[in-house]
Amino acid sequence: MTPPGPDKIPQHVAIIMDGNGRWAKQRGLPRLEGHRRGVETVRTVVDAARELGIRYITLYAFSVENWKRPTDEVSGLMALLDYFLKRELDTLIKNRVRLLTIGRTEALPAGVQRELQRVIAATKDFTDWTLVLALNYGSRNEVADAAKAYATAVQEGREKLSDASWERFSRYLYSADIPDPDLLIRTSGEQRVSNFMLMQCAYAEMVFTPVFWPDFGKADLESALQEYGRRERRYGLTTEQIKTGGS
Ligand code: IPE
Ligand code: IPE
Ligand code: MG
User: Fold this and answer.
1) Residue 101 structural domain
2) What CATH number does residue 85 fall under?
3) Which residue owns the Cα nearest ligand 1 atom 6?
4) How far apart are CA 214 and CA 14, in angstroms?
5) Residue 163 placed within a domain
6) Which tens digits make up the pLDDT trace of 45-104?
7) How far away, in angstroms, is 70 Cα from ligand 1 center?
8) Which residues of 53-80 are buried (b: 16+ CB within 10 A; e: fewer)?
9) Known catalytic residue: 66?
């Protein structure tokens, strides 16, 4: 399959990786086996994204709501995250991929936080490729945290209320240094955003695929890019305005 032309390659693709549990259930396996296979997909997709020229890839790995799952599933997910970070460090360095996170990572287990800090520090100077992991992430918490930080900045005189704007406020979001996603993909057939990057996806194109995350591969990413390439992003303008360069 030919990917869309280079001008149509999204700069930032965000993915809601869903369907690990159902993938496992279909095979009579424990849910955690689905998560294990999901980790392998992460490696495949991060490599594929780089090969396709996608500069930013954000993966929704653990939501604030996911703490409510059975404790053995939560601890299994945390152990997998720890394993992933340990295993991928060398590859990320070799491929010059910078790791960033969004979410309340300070509530993750201490060991995971240490691994995160290690990988983030070791990859911080890479500029070509960025992998963003959304961990203990919730969009509403992100807005609440940003509002608090912004209000503090106003109180301390670093911001002026009269200057308030989206541009200024958005610098307090976890994603301050990351461009907005151009394309949002959700696997597993669910068609909802589940509290993921609600502000940043204001103008993202959305592609939903029935494929469960453990089965998602480079061909599925390419077909999502094909779909993206067929979309016309109008940002409120008319088709005619888009064709004449926005005038
Ligand atoms: C996505 O797969 C992984 C996480 C949310 C951590 P799920 O575990 O949600 O899989 P389903 O939706 O139950 O199939
Ligand atoms: C969203 O998937 C969170 C992640 C992919 C980490 P969920 O499976 O938790 O979402 P819901 O519960 O179906 O909305
Ligand atoms: Mg799910």
Assistant:
1) 7-139+178-243
2) 3.40.1180.10
3) 62
4) 17
5) no
6) 999 999 999 999 999 999 999 999 999 999 999 999 999 999 999 999 999 999 999 999
7) 12
8) ebbbbbbbbbbbebeeeeeeeeebbbeb
9) yes
CA-to-CA distance for 67 and 70, rounded, in angstroms?
A: 8
CA of 81 to the centre of ligand 3 (A): 17
Q: How many structural domains are present in the chain? A: 1
Task: Say what the pLDDT of residue 245 is.
Answer: 81
Q: Give the DSSP H or E segment for 102.
A: strand 97-102
User: Is 93 part of any domain?
Assistant: yes
* Domain assignment of residue 158, yes or no: no
Q: Quickly count: other Cβ atoms within 10 Å of residue 43's Cβ.
A: 13
How many other CB atoms are found less than 10 A from the CB of residue 6?
8
Q: Which ligand is nearest to the CA of 136?
A: 2
Residue type, 134: A
Q: Is residue 164 part of a domain?
A: no
